[in-house]
Amino acid sequence: MFYFLSLRPISNEKYGDGGLILDIFSNPNLYKAMGGSFVLTSGLFSVLLLISRSQNQLLKRLFYVPARKSKSNAIQLGGLALGAGIYASLLFCKFFPEFFNVFNAKDIRLIEYFLIAGALINLYGYLDDKIELRPIVKLMGQVSSVVLYATLCSHLLSMHHNQIVFIIICFWGLGVVNGSNLLDGLDTLTLKLGMVSYGTFMFLGAYHNSPKIVICSALFMSCLGAFYFFNREPAKIHLGEIGGSLVGFSTLLLSSFLWQAVRADNFSPVRSGVLAIIPLTLPMVELGVSFLRRVYNKKSPFKGDQLHIHHILNREYGFTPSSVGTIMALGYLITMAGTLYLQILTHPYLALVALIVAQTGICFLIGKKYWNSEDTITITPRSIINFLRKKDVTIIESGQIDSFQLTILKEEIEKAEQEEDDSEAA
After folding, report:
1. Is the bond leading into 301 cis (omega within 30 degrees of zero)?
2. Is 318 left (phi over 0), alpha (psi -120 to 50) or beta?
3. What one-character DSSP code corresponds to residue 298?
4. Quick one: residue 17, left, alpha or beta (phi over 0 = left, psi -120 to 50 = alpha)?
5. Residues paired with residue 75 on neighbouring β-strands, in sequence order
6. Using CA of residue 301, residue 302, residue 303, residue 307, what is the dihedral sign?
7. Using one digit for the tens of pLDDT, what is the confidence trace for 228-276?
């Protein structure tokens, strides 16, 4: 990390060159907070296990949900414990800012907005894990939480371009929340990919001299790291709907902090925005590839399938769930490291395009031959237009019809049979 940091000077009036970041990494309070977050979240996961084995029917009705499709009798609602750990970490930063002495009033407000909007994710995620909501209801919950966060914080991030910031947060936020859920399909997968995401923000926070990003990323890593002991094979706890969404949503807060840090480095608003969304690319690529794959197979883009890369690596290539998580995390780490190095040497726009192309290319390289089915779109301009064009079909309710007649034209039937006989004779 410090090799990359040496590629640019970092100055601060109080601490000198790089002093603020070095002070944070050497501050024992950081490691105390990380240890507290780890212990608290581990305790909450343990409580979930105890509830699943207890005789208290009220607690079991509230917090015991057997994971659907689990081969190891795992339970869901792990995202509830993870979310509580993340919330506790942020509340600690809010109520005890002097512990680190880096959070100002604007940072505290962003944390408050995240907590308010994240409550919607916890609510609809809990209901979905308990009673399995309709997809449209989940989508409405995701839209509501992201739009609420964008509405509250866009004016804090930019006074003169707050409408554009609002649109960007809504678009990328909804994509990240959805895409992060799609990447939660195997044991330890979300854990390992989330660690790379948080690690990326930690590096960028250090590079742009923003200790608040380093602190929040480290605390989130501690909370997610506690999940490993409960999600490794054979998994005892799954994150459920809450967990994947909340991990994605937490990166939205870190991205907001990163935007502020880059703008403070005198970068333009556009360049700052590009840098802020680079760590959010993987969930967006996963969402985009899944959408196109389902359209390619003439299925609804909103209907789930088992053709994600992690499913293919597990099912077709024979890797264990843990190995799949490790392989995908390493691939994510390599592409992200190359992107960060490229954006330092060249330009963030080029780095973002290269990252999207690399991640999309890897998805197609691994999964393309397994995506073909008997009912796929022929990729030609005419076939794509025909697929997208509205069909002239009218549905009439039976109550609107008084009577109907069915007329069989004998001559037409005889003519068709004769043509069939002639073709067989030929």
Report:
1. no
2. left
3. T
4. beta
5. 66, 237
6. positive
7. 999 998 899 999 889 999 999 999 999 999 999 998 888 888 888 899 9
